[in-house]
Structure formats: structure tokens, C-alpha cells
Design a protein that fits this description.
Layout: E1 5-9, H1 13-25, E2 29-33, H2 36-46, E3 50-54, H3 62-72, E4 78-82, H4 87-90, E5 98-103, H5 112-123
Parallel strand pairs: 1-2, 1-3, 3-4, 4-5
Helix pairs in contact: 2-3
Length: 125
């Protein structure tokens, strides 16, 4: 069985380190990007099966990044982390094909259970 490749996009290095270690521990291949532009750059080269994308990033936020990603790939599942899990944040993103929103409460909050469940649901579709 091939390991799924997951692209983790987040501007917080500490969060990428912790989540990245967790995702690798689950047995997935991990690709990391610290900006939206970097994510778009690796998308065509690395061809991830799932993208985990931070909502709030400097320069190019998660929604803008996802709009760019959708120009290349309309079907790749995207899980969006957000520190602001409210209706205003989520509204308008349904057309972009987001598989799930997961609250990111702090850099070291334990979001891993929700993330693992979501990844497994996507892979086992």
C-alpha cells in the first residue's frame, strides 16, 4: 500500500514541527510549506493526496492559497486549520471544496485526533 502524501501549509514553524512529527508517526509522507506561494510551487512537483492548510497566514491567506490551488487541482481534499472557527470564517469557502475545518486553538493544542479522523475518512472514501 502506498503511503498518502500530505502537504502541510502553515507559517508557524513550531506548529509545522509538532503536526509534521505526528503525521509522520501515523505513517504518511509529509511535504511542508511555510507560505501559500511555496505550497502552490510544490503542488505540481510533489502531487499530494491531501492538503492541510492554515487559514491565517501573512501575504497569502489560506482562502487565497486555496483559490490558486483550485486552478490546478479541483479535487484534492483540503483540510483547513483555523484559529477562528466561526460562521464568518467558513462562509463562502464551501465552493472551494474544503473537506473539513479543524479548530487550531494554540500552537500546541491537541488537534491530532480530529486531524487523524479526517485524514482517514478522506483516504478510505
Amino acid at each position: 500500500m502506498n503511503k498518502a502524501k500530505i502537504l502541510l501549509v502553515d507559517d508557524e514553524a513550531d506548529f509545522r514541527e509538532v503536526m509534521g512529527a505526528t503525521i509522520r508517526m501515523w505513517g504518511y509522507d509529509l511535504i511542508e510549506a511555510s507560505t501559500g506561494k511555496e505550497a502552490i510551487g510544490v503542488l505540481t512537483d510533489k502531487n499530494p493526496q491531501i492538503i492541510i492548510l492554515d487559514y491565517m497566514m501573512p501575504e497569502m491567506d489560506g482562502v487565497t492559497t486555496l483559490k490558486e490551488i483550485r486552478k490546478f487541482d479541483k479535487t484534492v481534499p483540503v483540510i483547513m486549520f483555523t484559529a477562528h472557527p466561526d460562521i464568518k470564517t467558513i462562509k463562502g469557502t464551501e465552493k472551494l471544496g474544503i473537506s473539513a475545518f479543524i479548530p487550531k486553538l494554540s500552537t500546541f493544542s491537541d488537534v491530532s485526533a480530529s486531524l487523524k479522523t479526517t485524514i482517514e475518512m478522506i483516504i478510505n472514501k
